[in-house]
Amino acid sequence: MAKIAQKCADIEVVVVDINGERIGAWQTDELPVYEPGLLEVVREARGRNLFFSTDVDAAIESSDIIFISVNTPTKGYGIGAGKAADLRYVEKCARQIARVAKSDKIIVEKSTLPVRTAESIKRILDASGSHRRFQVLSNPEFLAEGTAMKDLENPDRVLIGGETDGEGTAAVKTLVDIYARWVPRENIITTNLWSSELSKLTANAFLAQRISSINAMSALCEATGADVDEVGYAIGRDSRIGPKFLKASVGFGGSCFQKDILNLVYLCSHFGLSEVADYWESVVQMNDYQKRRFSRRIVSTLFNTVSGKKIAIFGFAFKKDTNDTRESAAIHVCRDLLEEGAELAIFDPQVSHEQILRDLGLEAASAEVTFHQEPYEAANGAHAIALLTEWDSLREDQTDYARIFASMEKPAFFFDGRNLVDLDVLRAIGFEAHGIGKPAAR
Ligand code: UDX
After folding, report:
1. Contacts of 179 (CB under 8 A, 6+ apart)
2. Is 59 in a helix, a strand, or coil?
3. pLDDT digits (tens, 9 = 90+) for 36-75
4. Does the beta carbon of 143 sit less than 6 angstroms from any atom of ligand 1?
5. Which residues participate in catalysis according to the annotation?
6. Which helix (H) or strand (E) element contains residue 271?
7. Is the dihedral of CA 114, 116, 118, 121 positive or negative?
8. CA nearest ligand 1 atom 5, residue
9. I want to staple 5 with a disulfide (CB 3.0 to 4.6 A). Which of 50, 95, 281, 343 is the partner?
10. Whose C-alpha lies nearest to ligand 1, atom 14?
11. For 14-20, what is the mean pLDDT?
12. pLDDT(322) > 70
């Protein structure tokens, strides 16, 4: 919304939320999310044509277009628990709009939703009386965290789905015209509603599948002495495969991949397509295997026990340049290590201690889990380092690993869950260094 406000000074954008604290934070320079470049854009438009408010009803009344951008977490209860999307927040929005709206509106699904959700939204809206007309559009968001501002400025494509009758087409055009202010028209794709909804789930499933595929190969590389980065590079040079999203890791995280795949799995099962459901579910299973494999490897390498040993955790966010930890592989690895009795000294340049404690299900820092402002302090006296987020500052040219090595127990182990550092440099310092899908030291 900040981007739309920045690009379209004549359009008034009001962001509403029932959470007053968050809305308050959006009005300051301490935004509730860390995203490079976002503050500058918000500052440019805030107070001009970008406003933040908790008065949801007023915003509904005064708007022509309403974007529903609420959370659609994996359902934790009842039918479809653990897989289906929990649509209660979307439904609540639709009901509130139906109750409050006095004029015609275009409703845009921005949240990632199961296929045919637009139909339910439309039914709720239409059931509330016939004096206003609602058009429902699907406009999934493809930005990735950490690069959100770049992705919004210059998207590979914008996707807009709508009904194909006269009114539907007009509504689609209204939204196309907004994006066309800065996105080349040929990069704006219009489809029917269901194609748009399904394309979002499919895009995330394909992206996650690439990571699970390269991660599966990383296990085979470790067993055979091949180097997964070399394999990734070699196959990525095939223009049909392409070079992106082939980086082996400790496992993908983030708020979307797992949730959307499980959602897809649930949809397939619902339509009786059990083979298709199983196919996609294996992408998540491979990711779970990869996370578990990493923590097991730490334990087995440290002479089969980490009990009472200090392990420094470098990075907790699910990827660099974000403070988001949702589904971060770090959560799983840390939990596994704590279960094995390890003491964790955690460093992340952006994630708050409170967030990490919540993620690990702990009340407070203790002897088992401590927090550190810099990597040197975290690694001091540690038996091993587990690098779990690819922060640039943790590269060997920005962090003094010789200094770190000197302060650690010996043998000093290094497990790079992101293939971020040059293992040979660390080995030359004296570390016993392990990567993902990397040959052991010769
Ligand atoms: C993703 C999609 O990229 C985006 O289009 C969609 O709108 C939301 O979901 P995001 O979750 O922000 O975006 O981050 P992304 O860059 O896709 O990374 C997801 C996870 O995969 C991270 O944990 C990342 O570290 C991991 N990853 C990514 C790899 O392990 N290897 C890779 O090659 C790429």
Report:
1. 158, 160, 188
2. helix
3. 999 999 999 999 999 999 999 999 999 999 999 999 999 9
4. yes
5. 256
6. none
7. negative
8. 142
9. 50
10. 144
11. 97
12. yes
